[in-house]
Design brief:
This protein is α+β, with helices and mostly antiparallel strands. It contains seven helices and four strands, in the order βααβααβααβα. The protein has a four-stranded antiparallel sheet. It starts with a strand and ends in an 8-residue tail after the last helix. The structure holds adenosine-5'-diphosphate and magnesium ion. Its EC number is 2.7.4.6. Its cofactor is Mg(2+). Belongs to the NDK family. Its main location: cytoplasm.
Length: about 140
């Protein structure tokens, strides 16, 4: 196992319901360290670029509208196997399929408004962290 970093986003459905602290407790209790964090309002262009891999999917337009419907919290999480570990803590994309105790099981409103984003591989984690954070913001 190696120490990794992954990009996490607390999505607008969760910031709207004041769930940032409860979600952060899930990460910290699950062995991840929040090494960078900022609350921002994404622009449409930023959301479209961030989710560019899903551009051809039928839900793309709705997903972008949702992601700019309110503030998000951008985070870098660090720990052993952080990319896979974070995805375990988040739970399945569709909350109906998410395991007990996961963030999406407890907090997600729907398959779209599912409270959190987490990178899915080392390459995407590095790209997504660099998309939102400057090196000077990552102090470990
Ligand atoms: P994950 O966030 O678990 O990595 P994906 O990368 O497949 O999932 O999808 C990105 C995001 O797009 C999801 O988190 C969710 O917000 C949204 N999404 C995925 N599938 C659907 C769907 N069938 N309908 C609506 N929104 C979806
Ligand atoms: Mg994904």
């Amino acid at each position: 196992m190696a120490v990794e970093r992954t990009l996490s986003i607390i999505k607008p459905d969760a910031t709207r319901r004041n769930l940032t602290g409860k979600i952060n407790a899930k990460f910290e209790d699950g062995g991840l360290r929040i090494v960078a964090q900022k609350r921002v309002q994404l622009s449409q262009a930023q959301a479209e670029q961030f989710y560019g891999v899903h551009r051809e999917r039928p839900f793309f337009k709705d997903l972008v509208s949702f992601m700019i419907s309110g503030p998000v919290v951008l985070q870098v999480l660090e720990g052993e196997n952080a990319i896979a570990r974070n995805r375990e803590i988040m739970g399945a994309t569709n909350p109906a399929n998410a395991a007990e105790g996961t963030i999406r099981k407890e907090f997600a409103e729907s398959i779209e408004a599912n409270s959190v984003h987490g990178s899915d591989a080392p390459e995407t984690a590095a790209q997504e962290i660099a998309f939102f954070f400057a090196g000077i913001e990552l102090v470990g």
